[in-house]
């Protein structure tokens, strides 16, 4: 091989490698861009509205007079959804995971797992439709004081949305517990209930916890179902039957409206988005850290 | 236990029966709860189908949205989605696959690589609406692309990029190393090894990941709302710079109206959307099946 | 010394993994308060046979059997028999120590606890640990995690865990194969003590261990019981030539 030819091949390889690197680096640029945009507008926002007022204020009326900029009603709304979703997704998810990993036959698994995958693949706007047209009417029959837009319907469907992820992660966590531990329990004359609840689940607890944390993060970021079904009224309440507004729904509201860019109202969008971004980021970091610790124990 | 008195062994037997009963009850409860998930899916699909099946016909697919429900259709939404997904695929697939190739085949195990991988993992968990905000600020405003198909496609690409990269990485990683070593031993360059051996072997996994990512892109609404995809569009885009609407946006718009008939239209749109997704997933399953047969 | 009536008795027992006959029509008595060793080359079916004695094979898919196992003259696999109860009375120690990720105390107390034991747990745990020759080493740190113990200590903990159930029979599946010689010797010493109270069946591929420790020896090869008798006789005056070849190390 002539040296000229070799140099050309090596140069081509070099170019390709750099090109591929750039593709991978796009992710870093994306994160940087997100952080930059959020910080820039949020800082501008805080030039007008004091940080403390924003984080601890209990009234949110940035689009009406008199204007208040306390984010707590939006946080409360988001929390109602998260708690409701957790109440739905956690018990069902953990119980399904227990059934799939400890009891189910191969055939049952091969039916249930695809069902869960399908549930996971349904777009969120469909869940919003379902909440509004199916769940809410039923709730209003059972509990007549339920408002047309309410947190409970949205929370239920968000729970269903998050359920496949919880079930899948918990299933992984339980299956990672070594078979030898189960055999040890059975050899002492324990029933499957005792082995499952007093050996397997405690051993897989940190994996289950990680699933829970990641599910909460998903629920916080959920937009369409809450926009359609939970309402657009910032409302600092603990009553899930009332109309509320989540952080994500507020962001949608602002962008659907005619808020001029550069105005304070426009900047509220970024301030709320910052809170959203930071909270999901922290939860994701916590969740993956716990999951990694859990895997290390069993490998 | 070596408890020999009859009273003791009676107590033991009673306790054993209670424990066995509890164990069987527990199993049934877990099975029942799991069945609940299947029931919920059935309820959901049935509700949507019953609400919307009357509306799904050729006229529905071929008409623009209208104030009059009988005349309304999803033509602009369908075509808009088609444009959007096509451009998204064009942008995201090469970028994602090449990024995965870099990370699995070229990247040294140093801090920079680790940093990139952390970024990807984090982006996978960021709410989709934040990507919408990013798209609005950068593509719509800063680059001046306006509320166009291309702005939407770029935004969607950023959203699904982590999904593609993670799936492609997994597929590439599962290619046995012996395959690479054999090719290298014959004097091939790294890219030649990748192109001729690694990629074909990882292809089923990569394709499955791409289809999953595109399914996600088809169903996402929030980012499109943020960049300003319109909700009442009575024309078809003719270039990537044109404004557009998409199927999930149309469904959202109709669902948000108070009238019952618009809800039914929305259900019709949902049926179309779910059918498209079902087809795509069926293709993914088929690819996975063919891939595992080899 | 009831050498006439075995506490466990396998009669023409065959065990199948699907179509594969792993244990071929074995008839083997286990005598009370004696140590019976089962030796043989890898894959000869001795662990499979052992697991059938406390119905642990129930957890493996596709395992079926023919013939019967009698426990105190009752059919172990009869429809009316509760396998949970079987395992209360026939305990097991596994090849690799498998303590629960809990404290030392809770490992040993777990079994009695589950079974409604209402007496003094601390005394029960202490007795079990003493019988397993572990008490001295852990008495002052019972709340420590069991996973902090060494390999040999963990295995003795598993023995204590089984002993705490006060079973009639203890099955041991190559309990020392993952341990160093010192730990192995300690456990072998233990067995001499235990045999005064418990019936022990030990599977081992270490012939010297079988010869040292057991009263009766069964030699299996390819799923077949080649020879069974008093240990002394099997090792010094084996009846079968295959037995003689194995114990003198000519193969396996």
Give an account of the 3D structure.
The complex is a heterotrimer of chains A (299), B (294) and C (252). Chain A is mainly α. Helix content of chain A is 78%, strand content 0%. Chain A has helices at residues 3-48, 51-56, 72-103, 106-121, 124-142, 151-175, 179-187, 192-203, 205-221, 224-229, 247-256, 264-297. In chain A, helix 4 packs across helix 6 (151-175), helix 5 (124-142) crosses helix 6 and helix 9 packs antiparallel against helix 12. Chain B is 77% helix and 0% strand. The longest helix of chain B is centred in the N-terminal third of the chain and has 47 residues, at 6-52. The N and C termini of chain B lie far apart (55 Å). The mean pLDDT of chain B is 87. Chain C has one domain: Rossmann fold. In chain C, strands 6-7-8-3-9-10 form a six-stranded mixed β-sheet, sandwiched between helices. Chains in contact: A-B, A-C, B-C.
Main features:
heterotrimer; A: 299 residues; mainly alpha; MetI-like fold; 2 domains; 12 helices; 78% helix; B: 294 residues; 11 helices; 0% strand
Topology, element by element:
The complex is a heterotrimer of chains A (299), B (294) and C (252).
Chain A: H1 3-48, H2 51-56, H3 72-103, H4 106-121, H5 124-142, H6 151-175, H7 179-187, H8 192-203, H9 205-221, H10 224-229, H11 247-256, H12 264-297
Chain B: H1 6-52, H2 58-62, H3 75-106, H4 111-124, H5 128-142, H6 149-173, H7 177-185, H8 190-219, H9 222-227, H10 247-255, H11 260-293
Helix pairs in contact in B: 1-11, 3-6, 3-8, 3-10, 4-6, 5-6, 6-8, 7-8, 8-11, 10-11
Chain C: E1 8-17, E2 20-30, E3 35-39, H1 46-53, E4 63-71, E5 74-75, H2 83-89, E6 90-93, H3 104-114, H4 121-131, H5 135-138, H6 151-163, E7 169-173, H7 181-194, E8 199-203, H8 207-213, E9 216-221, E10 224-230, H9 231-236, H10 241-247
Parallel strand pairs in C: 3-8, 3-9, 6-7, 7-8
Antiparallel strand pairs in C: 1-2, 1-4, 4-5, 9-10
Helix pairs in contact in C: 3-4, 3-6, 4-6
